[in-house]
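Moderator note: this is an archived Q&A kept for reference. The question asked for a predicted structure of one protein chain; the sequence and the answer are reproduced below.
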Amino acid sequence: MKLLRVAFFNFKICYDKFMQTYVVKLLGWSQENAESLSGEHKKWVIFLIGPPGSGKGTQADLLAERFGLVHIQTSKLGEAKINDSELVKKDPEVAEVKRLYDKGELFPPPWTVKIVLEKAKELADEGKGIVFSGSPRTIYEVERELPYFENLYGKENIKIVNLKIDESESMDRNSHRRVCKANSHPIPNFEQFKNIQICPHDGSEIVTRSLDTTETIKTRNEVYERRTAPILDLLSQKGHKIIEINGVQPIQKVFGDILGEIFKS
């Protein structure tokens, strides 16, 4: 037990140091602002919605640290399952999803909803909140997931943030977007970060995403407008306040605006 406590203590020191490195060296924050990042833990569910390149992943990481939330990307959640060789052998459904995914198809929506709700139940039972970056993506997901989240966490603890950028900004950001090879941590597309070669999160190599071609970015924006943007009206109709944030601003200003509004919702 003593060894476990020591190990956890050492991990916490390393993690705190990593977060300060991340926000000071990578995001350009002052040391004072970096030290104020950690705060009270909240059992919230935050949905970050926005076009490709609007900064959902970066803001999710900051919110996760600020409020003790678990950052979930549904793509990573699904990939973890289909890359588990033992699970693929034992579960025919996962094996079929892997077969489809390996052919280039998307995860089936019913399966995506299923694994999201399973993870949500697990985290709620542990007393942990969640921040989703870019999920839910469709009306199908909202209609099936929202009642479940309201039951688990309470309607008042669900926060919805819309990060607003226009198509030209999305095209510009995504055409130069870099992520780390290990965990896809985003590297902001600003001049001061252009020479960064190693991820401050995990030390892995920084790469340019192969998916981010001009045509692919344009298609992803079209899909966002057609399939994802309409969920904001649906969420509003269901009585949830949509926190509208100007996502074109510097990262710290976007984060500050989110913090300023999230306690009002």
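Archived answer notes: The chain has one domain: 43-177+212-262.
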